[in-house]
Amino acid sequence: xxxxxxxxxxxxxxxxxxxxxxxxxxxxxxxxxxxxxxxxxxxxxxxxxxxxxxxxxxxxxxxxxxxxxxxxxxxxxxxxxxxxxxxxxxxxxxxxxxxxxxxxxxxxxxxxxxxxxxxxxxxxxxxxxxxxxxxxxxxxxxxxxxxxxxxxxxxxxxxxxxxxxxxxxxxxxxxxxxxxxxxxxxxxxxxxxxxxxxxxxxxxxxxxxxxxxxxxxxxxxxxxxxxxxxxxxxxxxxxxxxxxxxxxxxxxxxxxxxxxxxxxxxxxxxxxxxxxxxxxxxxxxxxxxxxxxxxxxxxxxxxxxxxxxxxxxxxxxxxxxxxxxxxxxxxxxxxxxxxxxxxxxxxxxxxx
Length: 352
Prior knowledge:
Layout: H1 15-29, H2 35-47, H3 49-64, H4 95-109, E1 113-116, E2 119-124, E3 131-135, E4 140-143, E5 148-153, E6 158-170, E7 179-183, E8 186-190, E9 194-199, E10 203-210, E11 213-217, E12 224-227, E13 230-232, E14 235-237, E15 242-246, E16 249-254, H5 258-261, E17 268-275, H6 276-284, E18 291-293, E19 302-308, H7 312-323, E20 326-329, E21 334-337
Parallel strand pairs: 1-3, 6-7, 18-21
Antiparallel strand pairs: 2-5, 3-4, 4-6, 5-6, 6-9, 7-8, 8-11, 9-10, 10-15, 11-14, 12-13, 15-16, 17-19, 20-21
């Protein structure tokens, strides 16, 4: 079997950029190439000088594979693609071409980076699963645990619907083609920016990392209802600001530690002065084995710390040690039993 040649990329270029370069090369060589694709590629090149270097080196490897660029009917198969977007490769007797193609596709899949084109009915993550989706314009969506989105692009605008969960959006700049994230009856509009959206049962939060976004009611005109019972104009966020929207409550603006909100990208859960029950609910987002409280706990049992996502038993043991609770493992759940004491109270042995 012919060995696959992998791109010789300089060590200082991150693997994520190598993956993006390979993705752009396949996209620009295939039937999905459009004017929007070319514009997205040019914008990607301008973002970082390393992008051009990575693309040139990846292109050189493809050129050495005896004209792989001539393949014009290549599609990429990855989890989440629609049925019609299955791989189809023109017949060829050149094993070298096939090997190089396989190598390029492998580069696209490294690190969970997947292609999604134009209209995708639904992409979701499971418990404690993270996924990165690269869209046809170069935008990226980072999906946190238990998250579902759908994508609908057309020539006029780029729309993504956050049906549940939490996602970080890195939007490629296309001023004449706005990027809109819908979540319930709200919409977040961006021209080129990075922002985080979290959708819970009765609450939506939008945190701007960089750039500029405008939050309004989805599909509304100039006068919109940002909170269902408080008709106001759209709210524009500044970098570092978080907007929290909930029913029957006025919109709340604050400035959280953005790095803490994005800790899930490193498999961490940062909890900052949350009641024990709320902290448990946050940990349960990432765990197959849920934590439960056997009794209601005092309001002063506040939790702060950095915990590993999915490690419910370790979290439970830490809470038991801090607050004098008992850990009871039931197989399908982990119970924290007993009435806890404040962590500031004198230490005493946990109840038997």
